[in-house]
TrEMBL record:
Cofactor section: Mn(2+); Mg(2+)
Record-listed E.C. numbers: 3.1.3.16
Protein name according to UniProt: protein-serine/threonine phosphatase
Record domain PPM-type phosphatase: where: 86-304
Source species of the chain: Fabrea salina
């Protein structure tokens, strides 16, 4: 069940202070991205980790560096469900902001609904990572509800790819409707990467640049499971332009260094996301076919 407008509005108000300044930070983030020479932070996430302030120190007028923010210990569990033997999660707010917009959702054992009591039901698990931007309301919504849209879909669990595709689209529609009813307008968005395990099969769905990798052969090999949705990607660039969008770069300050590729409408450095209502709905001068929440999905069988 999705939240009513009242509970959603209170969630939005809690994060309003973070989201209102996002647009003005765009050029600053581009400049910082150009100045930053190394980053040793991981992007793994855990729900419920609060804001952790971190210091910003200037070496000189032309270079900046960030002190690594303190991070709470990784949360681990050895609970089992089918082929899932254990899991762990961790999160931090990154190097640019002193608040955290990332969320994680873990449903280790997806129970069979009573309405489908006569059906066979494999062991199923759901793992979701949500990388919010412009506020945490969208990531909060996905953490609390995206799995419901997938699990309650008529195609689940026997056609997981279709359940993921239609579930993602349904969640996107619901969140945009909630944004329209909020006052002031809720503008946040989020990337997402979801892993759905059904029996001994794994299904990976991603929107944006949240990344999934898999290790194999006792950690000696690494396999990428997702493809970043970036405006600089050739296929995404072609899709954006074919649907009436534009891809561009900002000049970062007086140095003339170019910032990351961005998509318009949206002015984002990712080409797919949930939320970001102003980039998508025509009443806000958006284009629903440019910045989309359509996932890329792949499936494979897990084995020892």
């Amino acid at each position: 069940k999705t939240p009513g407008s009242g509970s959603f509005q209170s969630k939005v108000n809690q994060n309003r202070g973070h989201s209102t300044s996002w647009r003005s930070l765009e050029s600053t983030i581009d400049r910082l991205s150009a100045d930053l020479t190394s980053q040793n932070m991981t992007r793994n996430v855990r729900s419920s980790l609060g804001s952790i302030p971190f210091p910003l120190t200037s070496r000189n007028s032309n270079a900046r560096f960030f002190a690594t923010p303190q991070v709470e210990p990784t949360k681990c569990s050895v609970k089992e469900n089918g082929i899932v033997m254990a899991y762990a999660a961790n999160t931090n707010q990154g190097l640019v902001r002193n608040y955290n917009e990332d969320r994680v959702s873990i449903i280790l054992n997806i129970s069979k609904p009573t309405s489908r009591g006569g059906e066979a039901w494999p062991r199923c698990s759901f793992f979701g990572v949500y990388d919010g931007h412009g506020g945490s309301a969208c990531a909060d919504f996905l953490r609390d509800h995206l799995h419901h849209f997938v699990i309650k879909n008529q195609h689940f669990p026997f056609n997981p790819k279709e359940a993921l595709k239609t579930g993602f689209r349904a969640a996107e529609r619901e969140f945009l409707e909630l944004c329209k009813r909020s006052d002031p307008l809720e503008r946040s968005g989020s990337c997402a990467v979801v892993m759905l395990i059904v029996g001994d099969n794994c299904y990976l769905a991603n929107v944006g640049d949240s990344r999934a990798v898999m290790s194999g052969e006792r950690g000696t090999k690494i396999y990428p499971l997702s493809k970043d949705h970036k405006p600089s990607d050739e296929s995404e660039h072609q899709r954006i332009v074919a649907n009436g969008g534009r891809v561009y770069q900002n000049v970062a300050g007086s140095s003339g260094v170019l910032g990351p590729w961005r998509v318009f409408p949206g002015r984002l450095s990712v080409s797919r996301s949930f939320g970001d209502i102003e980039a998508k709905l025509t009443e806000y001068s958006g284009n629903p076919n440019v910045l989309t929440a359509d996932p890329d999905i792949k499936g494979f069988k897990l084995s020892e």
